[in-house]
Amino acid sequence: MRTLILLALVGLGAQLVDGSLGMAYGVTSTTLLLAIGTNPAAASATIHLAEIGTTLASGAAHWRFGNVDWKVVVRIGVPGAIGAFAGATFLSNLSTELAAPVMSLLLLALGVYVLSRFTFVGLPKGRQGLPLRKRFLAPLGLVAGFVDATGGGGWGPVGTPALLASGRIEPRKVIGSIDTSEFLVAVAASLGFLFSLGRQGIDLLWVGALLLGGLVAAPIAAWLVRLLPPRILGSAVGGVIVLTNVRTLLRSDWVDASGAVQGVVLGVVAVVWAAAVAWSVRAHRRAVALEAAEPLEVGEPPANAAAAAPELQSAPASR
Questions:
Q1: In this structure, which long-range contacts are made by residues 163-168, counting pairs with CB atoms below 8 Å and at least 24 apart in sequence?
Q2: pLDDT, tens digit, 9 for 90 and up, residues 80-91
Q3: Coiled-coil segments, which residues (predicted)?
Q4: Predicted confidence (pLDDT) per residue in 238-258, tens digit
């Protein structure tokens, strides 16, 4: 029972993160499942089965608010589903001893990306422009789907920044289209795992707990994003992912680091993480101050007019 409650909280937290950033549900929840000793393939399968429900709910909500570009959903989602099925099959055929460090390396890379992206850049803002082309969306979906299945997450971290950076679609439609198309990816990855693994290692109670937590968090995420700035949240979550997967790699057969080495490395990572969050907080405050100052600058009278006012007031007295 304690494990189910923990998993529900994991699903809740991961969906809050994903709803605020447009990414990192799979990366966050898979990292935590690996940390409690779950088999890598079973962890990814569990996450993707739960995501069938969470992405369906998220996509429906985005559709209701007009945040979905259906052409983008189809053009990126179908190749993404193909890549996800291939990635699930690939991961299922790796031995646990090899799959665990491979997945941790992939999650570590995604964690470093999320941490650096939100620390130094923040949430990028795209601009509406020309339609996105198939030759851009199809390869992007294929790669993002494969990474998502093999790493337990990655659809958002790979797809969202790429679409935002293209500058050809509104940010709200980037988030909505990525979230909606992820339903196809989750279904394809789940089928790939079920065909390759069967029910082996997949606990449906775990899936249900993650799903329940995610469904509860879905409406809360829209409220949370108003309170906690995405830039700060991204740095905080990226640090959790990096720290957890560095720990997994240090304890793997590939590295097998001593306790002293683990302590030093994890300590350094923790210091860098704290510095990154502090930097994001400072950058956010500076951005808020600049935004608050802009209306004042627009509404202020020119300096020469302010200086001339006392002279005009004193002019009658001098006469």
A1: 163/72, 163/126, 163/132, 164/124, 164/125, 164/126, 165/124, 165/126, 166/126, 166/132, 166/136, 167/126, 167/127, 167/129, 168/126, 168/127, 168/128, 168/129, 168/130, 168/131, 168/132
A2: 999 999 999 988
A3: none
A4: 887 788 788 878 887 788 888
